[in-house]
Design brief:
662 residues, alpha+beta, Phosphorylase Kinase, domain 1, six-stranded mixed sheet, five-stranded antiparallel sheet, 24% strand, disordered N terminus, phosphoprotein
């Protein structure tokens, strides 16, 4: 791809730029770059291909179907359909010397410029910069090689010797590693996984469903001979059962990682074939380990008991210290604070917490009565916040008031007790009305559309009308409560995040409910647009009358958003309308338009999703939906497979049994 003065060669969508095998051998390499509908992607050929770099454009607002990539004036440029013009009609910036970009045999895409004095073409700019730097290129250390600061090593057994791999040629040549015993599908009983901690892999396109623990991940690989390795990642803030398992069918270069430089823990499990000597060695190690365990069991038990006693005494003293500190806390520093109740007062108003309305991840909710007003008292359990942080959160929630937000009446912060008092919502949470768990009559279209508008207004207030933007971060039917007239209100701000208006993004650990998480959570850099994505999921649940993830259905239908994409592609959106309600079917055209609004909210790129004020304008008929939204939503699967498949490794959220605010 070259630029000489105003001469321009364009790489069109679907075309490939293939690297040569070496600097002197120009036969085709396994590395290539190609243009998809939103930008430039680089792959290493395998079955399936593995993506090691992508450069996408976030500027397209009109749903272009064709992308052209060119290089001009020292920059790689992406032109989408609406902005692309005939190159001959454009006044291109001129350059003082000839330039071109080349995809090298090592996978690097570099810009070269003619040096007239030296009469050479030196590389003057690196165009592609993968997440792992130089180690992010798939052939930097050859197959099975582990890259650590451009130094290559073979996988080690027990962290000290390599009983399964040997380097190809001279280790200094970084040609990769080869298994001492090739993998045999006829001897799967002798397959074993070699554990590499603090190691990651560049390609994250192929998650393994329902493999959320390291053991699940390893078993999935051992059961399928085509699997050569799996990469298990656990992002900060997740539990040991919420990890992501990624499938590898051909192992190229791996990357050694530093935990402080990424937002996840990572281990790679490489499949190896046990030979006769390996099996004997494994048996000997097992025998030695058994003897060692027997010899150290009794002393270890004694040590554990002593440690347990010490820890218990420490926690008791620590709790007493913080209880005393809580008693001395100065409440006057918070200017705007809702009513404060004593723990005894709330115990009395709930009749000893006798009538439980429901429970969620942070505690249980009880019905109570303050004077003549019915209230819902949420008792937080195992609260990890300190009193100062808890009260700051209460002040924030207590200072906002909107007809579509559940009102916080008061709170209790007494020693270790943390309670919140909300207005009572007699019809409970939305999920009980759209998932048909209580044999209730189906909601009509008018009620559903009004609930959607109510949710949008509540989120718009949080995002755009408060002094600081508030991202809710846990929008789902269980957190939408209904009053006696089915007016909807957003509830449960336990995971919310304040965002200064001069911040474009904030970094935070992953939080929320699987199945409702926007793709950008994988980067931990989020905006209020994550709520827009979750809103789109809730809209589809309201329209279809089913859960977002329902494992009781066939695999092809279990994920609602993936099913929506397929139905949109086949022009069969009517299949998703709730069949329980004849009224829904009679408003067919309005329901289809609402689905298209949901698709807009569900775009993988958060920048392309509408703001909640725009959503309201669409719902009120002031603004129309962009005509190309459907195509962008359908095409997302081929452009951003990781983000599109985030629900593939999400687990089924626990159904709410809540009949009052949480």
């Amino acid at each position: 791809m070259q630029l000489y003065g105003s001469h321009l060669i364009i790489l069109l969508e679907g075309m490939k730029l293939t690297a040569s095998t070496s600097a002197t051998n120009w036969t085709e390499n396994q590395l290539y770059a190609t243009v998809l509908s939103d930008g430039l992607y680089a792959y290493v050929a395998s079955a399936p291909p593995q993506n090691y770099y992508m450069l996408t454009s976030n500027e397209d607002k009109t749903g272009n179907e064709t992308t052209r990539v060119t290089f001009m004036n020292s920059s790689l440029c992406i032109f989408l359909n609406s902005t692309f013009k005939d190159p001959n009609s454009i006044s291109w910036p001129t350059t003082t010397s000839a330039q071109f970009i080349r995809l090298g045999y090592d996978g690097h895409l570099r810009m070269h410029e003619w040096d007239m004095a030296e009469e050479t073409w030196p590389a003057v700019e690196e165009v592609m910069k993968p997440n792992f730097g130089d180690c992010g290129f798939p052939t930097v250390c050859g197959e099975y090689g582990i890259c650590t600061g451009r130094k290559c090593t073979c996988p080690l057994q027990d962290n000290y010797s390599s009983g399964y791999f040997k380097p190809i040629g001279d280790p200094k040549d970084n040609l990769g590693c080869t298994p001492l015993t090739p993998i045999s599908c006829q001897e799967m009983q002798h397959h074993q996984l070699l554990t590499l901690d603090e190691v990651s892999y560049f390609d994250v396109n192929y998650p393994v469903e329902n493999a959320t623990t390291p053991d699940d991940c390893k078993q999935a690989c051992l059961k399928n001979c085509s699997c050569r390795a799996v990469n298990f990642r656990q992002y900060y803030g997740q539990t040991g059962t919420d990890g992501h398992c990624l499938w590898v069918t051909k192992v190229f270069s791996l990357q050694s990682i530093k935990l402080e430089s990424v937002n996840y823990k990572s281990s790679v499990f490489i499949k190896v074939q046990l030979g006769p000597s390996n099996s004997a060695a494994a048996s000997a190690r097992s025998t030695n380990n058994s003897n060692l365990i027997l010899g150290t069991a009794i002393p270890a038990i004694v040590i554990v008991v002593l440690l347990a006693i010490v820890v218990t005494l420490y926690l008791q003293r620590r709790r007493a210290y913080y209880d005393k500190k809580d008693e001395d806390f100065n409440f006057d520093q918070f200017a705007r604070m809702p009513a404060r109740f004593s723990f005894q007062k709330l115990r009395e108003c709930t009749q000893g917490f006798s009538k439980k309305l429901g429970e969620g991840g942070f505690g249980s909710v009880y019905e109570g009565k303050l004077g003549e007003e019915r209230v819902a008292v949420k008792r937080l359990e195992s609260a990890r916040q300190g009193k100062k942080e808890f009260l700051a959160e209460v002040e924030t929630i207590g200072s906002i008031e909107h007809i579509n937000l559940v009102r916080l009446i008061g709170f209790c912060a007494e020693k270790s007790q943390r309670l919140l008092v909300y207005e009572y919502m007699p019809r409970g949470s939305l999920d009980r009305w759209i998932h048909y768990r209580h044999n209730n009559a189906p909601l009509n279209w008018g009620t559903r559309s009004r609930i959607i508008l109510d949710i949008a207004k509540g989120l718009c207030y949080l995002h755009e009308e408060c002094r600081r933007k508030i991202a809710h971060l846990d929008i789902k039917p269980q957190n939408i409560l209904l009053d006696e007239n089915f007016n909807a209100k957003v509830a449960d701000f336990g995971l919310s995040k304040l965002i200064d208006r001069d911040q474009s993004k904030v970094v935070t650990v992953m939080r929320g409910t699987p199945g409702y998480l926007a793709p950008e959570w994988l980067t931990s850099q989020i905006t209020e647009k994550v709520d827009v994505y979750s809103f789109g999921v809730v809209v589809m649940e309201l329209i279809s009358g089913r859960k977002n993830i329902d494992n009781s259905l066939p695999e092809a239908s279990s994920n609602l958003i993936n099913l929506l994409r397929g139905k949109a592609r086949d022009n069969q959106l009517s299949d998703l309308i709730d069949k329980h309600s004849e009224d829904m079917l009679s408003h067919h055209e309005q329901v289809i338009q609402m689905m298209k609004l949901a698709m807009w909210c569900l775009l993988n790129d958060g920048c392309q999703r509408p703001s909640m004020s725009t959503v309201i304008k669409v719902l009120e008929g002031v603004t129309s939906i962009e005509t190309a939204i459907l195509h962008r939503f359908i095409d997302a699967n081929s452009v951003m497979p990781v983000q599109d498949n985030i629900s593939a490794y999400s687990v089924q959220p626990q159904a709410s049994t809540l009949s009052g605010p949480r």
